[in-house]
Specification:
The protein has 401 residues and is an all-alpha fold. Helices cover 70% and strands 1% of the residues.
Length: 401
C-alpha cells in the first residue's frame, strides 16, 4: 500500500534578525532593546580602538595637538612624533565620526532585515551630517527600518514585487529618513543649540552654578553630538589663543566645567561595572576595564557602547553625573586653559584638587544612578537565560522511536 503523500506547505516567511531567538513574538520595544544589547560585542571594540587612538594621539602630542594637527600633517615631517600624533588623531576622529552610520545601519537591519541596510546607512550619514550623535543615529535606524517594514506591507502586483523590494522600497525609505533627519531633526537641533547658547550667555552673568548644570547636561546628553559640541564651542570661545594671561577666570572655569563633565560618563560606567559587575554582560565588563582611559582623557564618546546597549538607563545616569560635576566646578571656581585632555592636561588645571573632587562626585552619581536603574529593571528576563533549550528537551518518545 503506497504511503500517503505529505502535504506541501509553503516555507515560512523569512525572519528579520530582531525577531530571532528569544525576542520573537515580544513587544517591539523589547526586541529593539535585546538587539541593541546584542550589538555590544561589535560596537565595543570599534569604539575602543578609535578612542584609544585618540588617547594615544593626546599622550604623544599633548593637548595642543587638537589645534595644530592640520599644520603638522601639511608639513608631513614623519621624523617628528607630533606628525604621527596628528595622524593618529585624524584616524581616531574619523572612526568615531563614522559611528552614527554603523549604528543606524545595524538597527535598521535588525528591524527590517537586508532591505533596511541601505536606508540605515544613508540615514546614518544624514545623522552624521546634522552632528546628531548617538541619539540621532538611533532615531535614524528606527525611522529607516520602520519605513521599510511599513512599505513592505503595501500590496503590489506579483510582477512588481521583486523590483519594489530591491530598489523602490529602499529608495523611498532612504528619502523619507533623510528628509525627516535633515528637514526636521536637524532644524530642531539647530534651534535647540541656539536657544541653549542664549540661555548660557545669560546665566554666565546671573547664575554660574546653573550654567554648570546646563554645560554638564549638554556634554553628557548625546555623547559627542551637536549639543556636546555646542558646549565645547561655548567654553572654547573664552580660551582661544596662545596668551593665557588674557583669559578671564570665568571663561577658564566654564571650560573646566565642560572638560570635567566630559570625564564623568566613561569613569562612572567603569565604576559601575566594578561595583556591581553582575548587572553587566561579560563584554561590558571587559570594555569597562579600558573605558576609564576615555574618561581620563575627557572623551564622553567612550561611553557610546554602554549607551547603545541600554540607553534608557545609561544616558539618564550620565546626565545626572554631568550636571553635578558642572555645577560643582562652577561653584568651586576650578579652571583650565585648554579645551581637551582631561587628566592629560593636569598641568593646565587651576585648583586641581577641587577639580578632581567635582569629577569624583559626578562619577559616583553616575555609577550609583546606573546601578540603581539597572536594579529597577532586573525583572526583565536576561537574554542569555530566556532562550529555550533545544536538544535534551526534545527527546523522542518511545512510540516515536
Amino acid at each position: 500500500m503506497p504511503h500517503p503523500r505529505k502535504p506541501v506547505t509553503a516555507p515560512p516567511p523569512p525572519s528579520v534578525p530582531m525577531n530571532q531567538d528569544d525576542a520573537q513574538g515580544r513587544h517591539a520595544g523589547v526586541r529593539i532593546s535585546r538587539w541593541l544589547s546584542a550589538g555590544f560585542p561589535y560596537f565595543g571594540p570599534f569604539v575602543m580602538i578609535a578612542a584609544l587612538v585618540n588617547v594615544l594621539a593626546l599622550a604623544i602630542g599633548g593637548t595642543g595637538i587638537t589645534d595644530s594637527a592640520d599644520q603638522y600633517l601639511a608639513n608631513a615631517d614623519w621624523s617628528q612624533p607630533h606628525t604621527w600624533a596628528a595622524l593618529l588623531l585624524k584616524i581616531g576622529a574619523s572612526g568615531l565620526g563614522f559611528l552614527p552610520v554603523g549604528v543606524a545601519a545595524y538597527l535598521a537591519y535588525g528591524i527590517a532585515g537586508r532591505p533596511g541596510v541601505i536606508p540605515g546607512l544613508l540615514g546614518g550619514m544624514a545623522a552624521m551630517g546634522v552632528d546628531g550623535g548617538v541619539l540621532v543615529s538611533l532615531a535614524a535606524g528606527l525611522i529607516s527600518g520602520g519605513a521599510v517594514v511599513a512599505l513592505e506591507r503595501i500590496p503590489v502586483p506579483p510582477k512588481l514585487r521583486d523590483p519594489a523590494s530591491t530598489i523602490l522600497i529602499p529608495l523611498l525609505a532612504s528619502l523619507f529618513t533623510a528628509a525627516v533627519l535633515i528637514a526636521f531633526v536637524g532644524e530642531q537641533l539647530d534651534s535647540l543649540s541656539a536657544w541653549l547658547h542664549q540661555k548660557m550667555a545669560y546665566l554666565e552673568f546671573h547664575d554660574t552654578a546653573l550654567l554648570g548644570v546646563f554645560l554638564g547636561l549638554m556634554v553628557c546628553s548625546d555623547l559627542g553630538g551637536m549639543l556636546g559640541k555646542a558646549a565645547v564651542a561655548f567654553g572654547t570661545a573664552g580660551v582661544s589663543g596662545y596668551d593665557t594671561s588674557k583669559f578671564s577666570p570665568i571663561d577658564m572655569t566654564i571650560m573646566a566645567a565642560v572638560v570635567a563633565a566630559g570625564m564623568v560618563p566613561a569613569l562612572g560606567l567603569t565604576l559601575a561595572t566594578l561595583v556591581r559587575g553582575k548587572l553587566f554582560t561579560e563584554a561590558e565588563r571587559s570594555y569597562g576595564r579600558v573605558a576609564w582611559l576615555f574618561g581620563a582623557a575627557a572623551m564622553p564618546e567612550g561611553t557610546v557602547p554602554f549607551a547603545l546597549s541600554d540607553p534608557l538607563r545609561v544616558i539618564p545616569a550620565t546626565l545626572a553625573g554631568g550636571a553635578v560635576t558642572g555645577a560643582l566646578v562652577m561653584t568651586f571656581g576650578a579652571t583650565i586653559t585648554v579645551p581637551y585632555g582631561g587628566a592629560l592636561a593636569a598641568g593646565d588645571i587651576g585648583k586641581p584638587l577641587l577639580f578632581a573632587v567635582a569629577v569624583a562626585a559626578g562619577v559616583v552619581v553616575t555609577a550609583a544612578a546606573t546601578v540603581g536603574l539597572k536594579l529597577l529593571g532586573r525583572g526583565a528576563v536576561p537574554v542569555a537565560t530566556a532562550r529555550t533549550t533545544t536538544g535534551s528537551s526534545r527527546r523522542k518518545s518511545p512510540a516515536a522511536a
